Amino acid sequence: MTFKTFLPELHNIKYICRGEKTDECSLLLSSIIVLCSGKVSCSLHMVSIFVLILCVLIVFRHGDRTPVVNFPTDPHKESEWPQGFGQLTKTGMQQLFKLGQYTRERYSNFLNSTYNRQEFYIQSTDYDRTIMSAQSYLSGLFPPTSSQIWNPELLWQPIPVHVLQKSTDQMLHFPLTGCPRFDELQNKTQTSSEFQNRIQPYMGIHNYTLPVWATKDVIDKMEKLAELSLLSLFGLYKTEEKSRLQGGVLVNAILKSIKQAANSSKQRKMEVYSAHDTTLGALQIALNIFNGKLPPYASCQFFELYQESSGQYSIEMHYRNDSSKDPYVLTLPGCTSSCPLEKFAELVSPVITENWSKECGKKDKMKDIFIGFDIAIGLLFIFDLVLLYLLYHYGRCRRRNNYQDI
């Protein structure tokens, strides 16, 4: 076999050699070594493709759901949906189950075939549809085998899905609330010329009854409006500052996990987050990789950390928004598709804040308490001085009045 005819196989090396050394990986590596030690010339670029995957972070949108709200004249009321509004459907369950199977296939030589809590972690926002999506995903990712089968008639196993309350979720539930500065930016976005120019073509689609406006043209316009709504929420106007207050928070969390994996010998292999279209939108806009399209149900953003043969760490991003196609490779502006970790961190630094509350313009409640306490102490001190003065002055006057001439 010549090196030229062998070359197509090289494109699969990165995926064959994921994680631990497998027989397939060892065989392929041996073949390359033989080729490179013979008459065939191997460039440094060819050799450098041997990489080791260390960590994967995944953020996906929940599956198909029932409507969140309906319009006033909608004949289909909430009671007609089995679980009401905003709930995961059977189609949505199937979408996430298949995504779990795809993840298993994609990382079959990296992730253990059986669930191991030391290697795998999954977190969801506090919504029924995202929690159920996470559970459906896990059914496809970790079907029980051998000793993990606890019921022969049910090839399913319980795996913990970690959830933060909505009021405390400052990582996945976007837009993040309690940020006065972001609210101010959002109000200014609505009046900005960029937003007004983009929304103008869609201003004539309101106040139609269902039989009239439910046409393909109107539905297309509504889809464009939804995309514009997402874009205006996290972009259009002062995008970088918005990102620092929104999507950059998630970028920072992902970067910290990746750095920890690069610097630790006992790293978690995979972290998965079940969230929303706004989560993916905020994340991708912060990274400047947003394609302008509303993330579809079960769409998925992959972050993969690799260690090159030179010892250098690199990050790759892949976006799966179509189950019939392989994920798209996304490139961080200013870098290559396989971006060195240090370069990646440098490029995303403008959207990362170390003091979110301060940049949001939030008042420090404890600081206010201490200020109030200091004021109270000051007033008490002044009151004491006044009281002492009055006692002293009153005492002198009393002594004078009690004095009698003899």
Word description of this protein:
- It catalyses: a phosphate monoester + H2O = an alcohol + phosphate.
- Keywords: Disulfide bond, Glycoprotein, Hydrolase, Membrane, Signal, Transmembrane, Transmembrane helix.
- This is acid phosphatase.
- It comes from Calidris pygmaea (Spoon-billed sandpiper).
- The chain has 406 residues and is α/β, with parallel strands linked by helices.
- The protein is built from 16 helices and eight strands.
- Among the domains are: 45 residues, no CATH class; 232 residues, Phosphoglycerate mutase-like (Rossmann fold).
- Strands 1, 2, 3, 4, 5, 6, 7 and 8 form an eight-stranded mixed sheet that branches.
- Helix 5 crosses helix 6, helix 10 crosses helix 13 and helix 11 crosses helix 13.
- The N and C termini lie far apart (135 Å).
- The N terminus is likely disordered.
Secondary-structure-derived class: alpha/beta
Could you name the CATH class of one domain? Alpha Beta
Span between N and C termini? 135 Å
Which range does the strand content fall in? 5-15%
Order of helices and strands: HHHHEHEHEHHHHHHEHEEEEHHH
Number of strands: 8
Rounded average pLDDT: 80
CATH topology (fold) name of one domain: Rossmann fold
- Within CATH, the superfamily of one domain carries the name Phosphoglycerate mutase-like
Characterize the main sheet: 8 strands, mixed
- What is the radius of gyration? 30 Å
Subunit organisation of the chains = single chain
Provide the CATH architecture of one domain.
3-Layer(aba) Sandwich
The low-pLDDT segments are 1-12, 39-48, 205-211
Count of DSSP H/I helices: 16
Q: Tell the overall outline.
A: globular
